Amino acid sequence: MRLGLVLFTFATAIAAQELTLETAFSRPEGPVPTDYAFSGDGQRLAYLLRDELVVLDLSTGDRRVVDRKVRQFRWRPGTHELLREGANGWKLGDRTLLKNRRPRALRWAPDGQRFAFVEEGDLWVYELEKHAARQVTRRAGPGRRCGLPEYMAVEELDRNEGYWWAPDSRRIAYQFVDGTRVPRFFIPNLLHKRNLPRPQEYPRAGNPNVAWELRLVDVESGADEKLPIADEYLVRVDWSPRGELWVQTSNRLQTKLTVRRDGEVVREETDDKWVAFHDDLRLLDDGRWLWSTEESGWRHLLLNGEPLTSGEWGVDRVVHADRARVFFLASRTKHHERRLYSVDYATKKLRDWTPKPGWHDARLSPDGAWILQRSSRVTQTPHWTLRHTQRDEFHQIAGGRRLPGLQAPEFLDIPQPAMLFRAKKRGPAIIYVYAGPDSQIVRDVWRGSIGLWHQRMLQRGYSVLMVDGRGSRGKGRAHVRQVHGRLGELETIDQTAAARWLAKQPEVDPKRIGIWGWSSGGTLALFCLQTSPDVFAAGASIAPVTDWRDYDTTYTERYLGLPKTNAPAYDRSSPITTATSLRRPLFIAHGLRDSNVHARGTFAYVDKLQREGIAVEMDFYPRGDHGIGGQTAWELMFGKIERFFDRELGVK
Q1: SS3 451
Q2: Is it the case that residue 223 has pLDDT exceeding 80?
Q3: CA neighbours within 13 Å on the CB side: how many for 114?
Q4: What CA–CA distances, in Å, run from 209 to 180, 293, 647?
Q5: Tens of pLDDT along 262-288?
């Protein structure tokens, strides 16, 4: 049987009954495949299901479990061999490599004869022929490392790589990072007997970032040279198939992006607000290059500088490109849907590869023959399909467990894009908000545990509303850039206007509207409570930023500039400034080991309230990070949020 084989399905459906907290936070959609990868020739697909490594032969449809207790894996280039990490190290075939070592950032050289990794801050190379690893850089020290991205690159620039193999498999471009000038932030460990804190290299707004160099090392001769590139941020690094080194850098305020090819500037983009970085650069083997830009007001594709796409819609991201066409994801026809498209270079003709509505993600095999597509909707759990781009083959691969009894929302414009779950009778309502710049919350997508909790609240008589206000993505560059220098201001106005609209709906008691959010959504929940006590009866704020001076450089300065030169913007954008205007009940929670939004901000906010005699309901998690914790912690916290809203919004 060829690829019509269903690899695994979930036929059992949860009975259509009231969702419990335990059910909502136990991932009832079932196990899902993770860490997918096609082999280099596109003939195999590997993925992890729990800790089992599964390989699908695309030519026969055969599937087999090749190993268990696998943490991660890498295809060896030019072969169908898998290098995989288990409890005792990495294995290739039956042979254990790097036994009892913990290498980081392991990547194969393109020829498959060696791989590199980082250990104790330096780059190493393992030679298969010699069965041995050798150190190729010797620059590591306290606060200094080679081949690993700094925290800001990972957290705010979406760059997870710190080194890049050249096509000749002999040279490696790598980032050398010196973080010694970055002030340390100390994260408390209240469970330690001596309260021993953990230091974190965390540059807050206005503080120095890491210093960095881009270097090139020859792994055979050991020759190591610094490349003549300097800027505040190293944004992206790529090698072309022809061996050209492409480097993207940015200034500190992220208003100028510079693209270099072998040191020569080939493109610059500027914006008086900020330039939005992306991963859409594709370097084709015939020398052409693909790029995306927002210069028209919407993100569109260019081939060698010439437009490929146009219109009042934007490309979300590129997923594959070859000599004839490029595949990309976009919300082209509906704000709340994302679909897979391709555009032909010669004709500029668009093709929609998405047969059904919903929110879709995709990955293509290296030869462009197969599309692995992940699809879901608000009421449909994620499912994975595999289809051929040349033949009429479309096969279910995984997922798709049925959860009956879920209610679909209405997608509306009020006038901002919104989605509303209407309760069956008149009662309270809650607004769920995120609203960070370039974010999007109104999507026809499976939301996991939070989505199921909203369904539970709906079953318990609450209407639930979500709104994409000004600053959100999907409506062009100008729409997003409005929030520059005024984080929280326009978003609060829009969420409040949405609440006033909600109050007029027949299912909603206008005196019983609450709001809740997490992270920047928690920040906005505070603003809404403080500015509009006549609209919002109560609110819950999880891990909020209460003063942007305490948040990281890259994110904060992109939207607010530097604290020294734009202090009024920081004051306006931080809810701690007007905290004492709080007049409505507040539930506030934070994980004390949060390394992203430090709990210090929540304590400072609560302290200011207490000094004015204002009491709030507090909930802290000593082991919790920015996500608070696992299933038990979520059940505990959301149970408290439920009881808080029930009490404050009059639900018995």
Answers
A1: helix
A2: yes
A3: 24
A4: 10, 27, 46
A5: 999 999 999 999 999 999 999 999 999
Q: What is the pLDDT of residue 102?
A: 87
What residues pair up with 85 in beta bridges, in sequence order? Answer: 72, 90
DSSP, res 121? T
Q: Which of 545, 470, 537 is nearest to 510 (CA)?
A: 537
State the pLDDT at residue 14.
43
pLDDT band at 99 (very low <50, low <70, confident <90, very high): confident
Q: Which position has the higher pLDDT, 100 or 247?
A: 247
Nearest to 373 by CA among 388, 389, 361, 358: 361
| Distance in angstroms (rounded) separating the CA atoms of residues 560 and 568 | 10
Quote the CA–CA distance of 65 and 396 in Å, as a whole number. Answer: 18
Write the pLDDT tens digit of every residue in 508-550: 999 999 999 999 999 999 999 999 999 999 999 999 999 999 9
Give the pTM.
Answer: 0.94
479 DSSP assignment: H
What is the spatial distance between Cα 329 and Cα 381, in angstroms, rounded to a whole number?
A: 20
For 642, the enclosing helix (H) or strand (E) is helix 631-648
Q: Are 329 and 309 in contact (CB under 8 A)?
A: no
Task: State the virtual CA torsion across 87, 93, 99, 105 in degrees, nearest 10.
Answer: -80
CB 168 within 8 A of CB 219: no
Identify each DSSP E strand in 426-527 by its residue range.
427-433, 463-467, 508-518
Res 435: pLDDT:
81
Please name the residue ranges forming H helices in 128-179.
151-156
In 147-299, beta strands by DSSP E: 163-165, 171-178, 184-187, 198-201, 211-218, 224-226, 233-239, 245-250, 256-261, 264-270, 282-283, 289-293
C-alpha dihedral, 376 to 377 to 379 to 381, nearest 10°: 10
Contact (CB, 8 A) for 594 and 543: yes
* Phi, psi values for residue 3, rounded to 5°: -70, 5
